[in-house]
């Protein structure tokens, strides 16, 4: 059986119900990069979401360099610092690359999935052969998780 781990973008977090975000499935298999947590700082359950933190380590920053080297200088689809847009977007892909690299010396490891509705994020993830899900697809997975595994029920 394949183990899936999910890196969740803020545009997906905002579409999920608080119950979905509080589910045991979410708590067990979902990770939220630091910059996404910053974007989600106004959520009423931000303290609980921080338990799913995917830390920005030196290794993640090295992968961020790999990601950014593939972005043309004039391209503002993935990140536009002048418009203060997309700060977390390349980081999500970098987190997936770093997480995947932790299993390079193993025969099998978890499949890391980027969960985002941002086309530029999804395209960049595809460029690095990272699995992707939309908010709707991911919500269906959360809803299909056994009710017994949900918290706050």
Radius of gyration: 15 Å
| CATH architecture name | 3-Layer(aba) Sandwich
Strand order of the largest sheet: 3-2-1-4-5
Mean pLDDT: 89
In helices, the fraction of residues equals: 40-55%
Residue windows where pLDDT falls under 50 for at least 5 positions: 148-153
**End-to-end distance:** 28 Å
The CATH class label is: Alpha Beta
- Sheet with most strands: 5 strands, parallel
Keywords:
globular; 153 residues; Rossmann fold; PIN domain-containing protein; disordered C terminus; five-stranded parallel sheet; alpha/beta
Structural notes for this entry:
With 153 residues, the protein is α/β, with parallel strands linked by helices. The chain has a single domain, classed as Rossmann fold (3-Layer(aba) Sandwich), CATH 3.40.50. The chain has nine helices and five strands. It has helices at 10-13, 18-22, 24-29, 34-39, 46-49, 58-68, 89-101, 119-127, 135-144, and strands at 4-8, 30-33, 53-54, 111-115, 131-133. Helix 6 crosses helix 7 and helix 7 (89-101) runs parallel beside helix 8 (119-127). The radius of gyration is 15 Å and the shape is globular. The model is unreliable at 148-153 (pLDDT under 50). This is PIN domain-containing protein.
Outline of this structure?
With 153 residues, this protein is an alpha/beta fold.
């Amino acid at each position: 059986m394949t183990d899936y781990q999910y890196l969740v973008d803020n545009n997906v977090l905002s579409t999920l119900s608080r119950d979905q975000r509080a589910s045991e499935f979410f708590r067990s298999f979902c990770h939220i990069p630091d910059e996404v947590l910053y974007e989600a700082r106004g959520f009423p359950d931000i303290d609980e979401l921080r338990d799913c933190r995917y830390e920005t380590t030196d290794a993640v920053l090295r992968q961020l360099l790999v990601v950014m080297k593939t972005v043309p200088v004039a391209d503002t689809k993935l990140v536009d610092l002048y418009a203060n847009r997309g700060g977390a977007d390349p980081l999500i892909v970098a987190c997936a690359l770093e997480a995947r690299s932790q299993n390079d010396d193993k025969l099998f490891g978890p499949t890391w999935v980027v969960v985002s509705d941002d086309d530029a994020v999804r395209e960049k993830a595809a460029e690095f052969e990272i699995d992707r899900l939309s908010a709707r697809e991911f919500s269906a997975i959360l809803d299909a998780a056994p009710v017994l595994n949900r918290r706050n029920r």
